[in-house]
Design brief:
The protein has 2 domains: about 325 residues, Ribonucleoside hydrolase-like (Inosine-uridine Nucleoside N-ribohydrolase, Chain A, Alpha-Beta Complex); about 120 residues, Immunoglobulins (Immunoglobulin-like, Sandwich). The N terminus is likely disordered. Strand 7, helix 7 and strand 8 form a beta-alpha-beta unit. The protein has 13 helices and 23 strands. By secondary structure, it is α/β, with parallel strands linked by helices. It holds the Pfam family Sde182_NH-like.
Length: about 475
């Protein structure tokens, strides 16, 4: 249920530079094999001020085994340069096109592990190594849209040229989100570097398992026939024609999809600073989906993936109310539950490429517990205790009316065995809500399952404006519940 209140009008000006909140990302893309990589790159570029892009590397894949297309990346960066002056009217922090051009590189010119040269690494592998070596406390996210042999080559080179301790430190700085396995390099990497944080639904290179993958929740409802409950309208070519393709120089570079819209986009969506902060933990869930850590059949070690343990019923699927009002449970729902919000946000940013500040919409600014920004609010409760969650002072840059939706994200949380999923109750009215701790653990489906010493609950606040398109910002509350003394 949504509750509406009038917003406090903020002065119309660009948001402050979000540099402190930017996540570092390097993209490996088999752009040129079909339209969806190019579509994803357009989206990435209109979020270039919200991320720290460390590399744009053209790669091969099972769909494009012999050639790479860095020239296509360069053409899109040129279009970005044309619209950058207008983007600066809406927010700060947009990199120069020349600096993005300097980040374009090419991975091995061949398919999979057969093309890897540990002693003569490609420009793409060297770019990855340089980015990972840069002194920075933030991890480097490797967003794998195609084959992973550039990453394999970088890791092979570091292993061949550095001592074991330096290799371990290098691997610890990396986080990987792969759109399935599009060559034989991904499985090899996971075997050879077992400590590497790797998000993937393992697959054969022929794409036969794609229909089960979480990432298809971005738009795969009709093609993969796996989106029961999802609303397809905002990912249809008809909607994209009006809201994306018709808008400026970058819109002209956004092609009509062949199979699905932007199948690679989930590999960076969780890095965007929307207030969900899902990059902090892969099990938290956000625009790019939610995963659990487990060892799928055929893997040599646990990875962040789909499925789960049927005994405690901790799985990667979310249960969501669909467009028809019915409940649906699926891995794809962990993405499509946010679809209207991330599509509207993209459409608004495309408006930024050619409209004035006054003619465009900008996302709400959420204040929670007196704290501005996008950070997680962490609270502690004992069983029987309660706390008031207070979003008063939230505002909208355009003076739009705001509505508030509070909900418990029941599936979000850490790995089983370490902490329970706390049982909490939420009563909301407008910009305030009361959260009560009922028990350390929610009731289990099987009697006798032990409850850990403490439990955690995730509460999401979604604040939406009434502008066009309607935009939503979030804040996450993580509440640890312990027994009453």
């Amino acid at each position: 249920m949504l509750f509406g209140l009038s917003a406090t009008q903020a002065t119309a000006q660009p948001d402050p530079d979000p540099a402190a909140e930017r996540q570092r990302v390097l993209v490996l893309t088999d752009i040129g094999n079909e339209p969806d990589d190019q579509m994803s790159l357009v989206r990435l570029l209109v979020y270039a001020n919200a991320l720290e892009i460390e590399g744009l590397v053209a790669t091969t894949s099972t769909w494009q085994k012999e050639r790479t297309h860095a020239d296509t990346i360069a053409a899109l960066v040129q279009a970005y340069g044309e619209v950058r002056p207008n983007l600066l009217l809406h927010a700060t922090g947009w990199p120069e096109a020349a600096s993005l051009n300097a980040l374009i590189a090419t991975g091995p010119q061949g398919y999979g592990m057969a093309a890897v040269r540990p002693r003569q690494p490609s420009g793409g592998a060297l770019r990855l190594i340089a980015a990972a070596d840069r002194a920075d406390r933030r991890p480097l996210w490797i967003s794998v849209w195609g084959g992973a042999n550039t990453l394999a080559e970088a890791l092979s080179h570091v292993r061949a040229t550095r001592p074991a301790a330096a290799l371990a430190a290098f691997v610890a700085r990396l986080r990987v989100y792969a759109i399935s396995d599009q060559d034989d390099a991904g499985p090899w990497i996971r075997r050879e570097f077992p400590s590497l944080h790797y998000i993937v639904q393992p697959s054969t290179a022929d794409g036969g398992e794609y229909g089960r993958a979480t990432w298809t929740g971005i738009s795969g409802d009709q093609y993969y026939r796996n989106g029961d409950g999802a609303d397809f309208r905002t990912v249809s070519n008809e909607w994209l024609d009006v809201n994306i393709r018709a808008k400026g120089a970058l819109g002209r570079h956004y092609p009509r999809y062949l199979f699905i819209m932007e199948g690679d986009t989930p590999a960076f969506l969780n890095l965007l600073p929307n207030g969900l902060e899902s990059y902090r933990h892969t099990s938290w869930g956000g625009w790019g989906g939610r995963y659990v850590e487990r060892q799928p059949y055929g893997e040599t070690r646990p990875v962040w993936t789909q499925g789960g343990d049927a005994f405690p019923r901790v799985t990667s699927a979310d249960t969501v109310t669909g467009a028809d009002g019915r409940q649906y449970t699926s891995d794809q729902a962990t993405i499509w539950r946010w679809r209207e919000a991330f599509q509207h946000d993209f459409a608004a940013r495309m408006d930024w490429t050619y409209r004035s500040f006054a003619q465009a919409n900008h996302p709400p600014l959420v204040r929670l517990q007196g704290q501005d920004g996008r950070g997680v609010v962490e609270l502690a409760l004992t069983v029987g205790g309660s706390v008031t969650l207070d979003a008063r002072g939230s505002s909208d840059p355009d003076g739009d009316h705001l509505s508030y939706r509070w909900f418990v994200y029941a599936e979000a949380g850490g790995p089983p065995g370490e902490v329970g999923k706390a049982d909490v109750r939420l009563e909301a009215e407008g910009d305030r809500a009361t959260l009560r701790a009922v028990a350390v653990c929610r009731p289990n489906w099987l009697d006798g399952v032990p409850c850990p010493a403490s439990g955690v609950a995730h509460v999401i606040l979604a604040v939406s404006d009434d502008g066009h398109p309607r935009l939503t910002s979030y804040r996450r509350v993580v509440v640890r519940v312990t027994p009453a003394p």
